[in-house]
Amino acid sequence: MRFRLLLIALLCCLGAVAQQTITVDQLVEFMRSSIKLKTADSKVADSLKGTRLSQRLEDRVIEELQTEGLGTRTVSALRALAMASAKLPAPQAVKIDKPAAPVKEPGPSLEDQKKILEEAREYAMNYSKSLPNFICAQSTKQYDNNRMYGNVLAKLTYYEQREKYDTIMVNDKMTNTAYEKLGGSISTGEFGSMLVGIFDRQTQADFAWADWKTIHGNHKAYVFRFSVDQPHSRWQIEDRQSGTKISPAYNGFVWIDVKDNSVLAFTMKAVDLPSTFSITEADSRLDYDTVEISGNSFVLPTRAVMHLVSARSDQKNEISFHNYQKYSADATLKFDEPVEDTPPKK
Prior knowledge:
By secondary structure, the chain is an alpha+beta fold. It has 7 helices and 15 strands.
């Protein structure tokens, strides 16, 4: 009963946020309360509509809240607030330090961190080879300036470590349009290449310990922050209107399962984008979870978010992977399971 009353009080406070101008400190306090009470990501994001800040919201504050467990929709809403507040004065002191805990579990020793990262690297480099041949459904909800304009359903075939996408429906209408020719932003590479791009030694990513987190409900994870400089970047971003492509420097976080050092999720955020490139902001997140195919368990992508900002638009794709089935030449994609409309759990 006490928890429910606290939740109701939080939602009332969040509703009030949208009706007034608040400081960054107040915003951080509300966000942390929502994380603690496990308020639905969609509700927290909706509560931020109409919110005005009296100070500039900086990316580092958003990234810190994201590592603490903030949902993807709320993170997108905060990035919109950051853009709207870009010309406001910076707060003198933003409370981004994690709340003090009675007992803080120390991080692994430097020697153990190296071992964890080496085992995660081996996992990443062999990930594609460990996957079976399968088919699944990929659902993509496309947003532009927070307005949903596209709902794409595609058949994804994974055969001999290669991905093939076949469009089935766009906005609930059957279509034969090639996946690569669809309008708006599209995403590929979730089944190994993005992961390899982070962990391959040739990428020379710089890793540093961040924190412990529980992800996807019950998976305790090591969290490392990482950065990749531009000369070694394999992440390719394309402005589809002009056809211009770049490989930017980027940083992010990776969640590694303490049980077997498998990768449970990672984020990527582009930095130092060229002023001549039309896209001014780019970030993404990919979540993995255990999926059963023909009675065997595999760790496979379940959710992804891709976000691109330019002078023309603020585009976001929310992607879900479902209905995994073993591949065969005559395999037919079935849709007997409902598609959940919930964000990735932290």
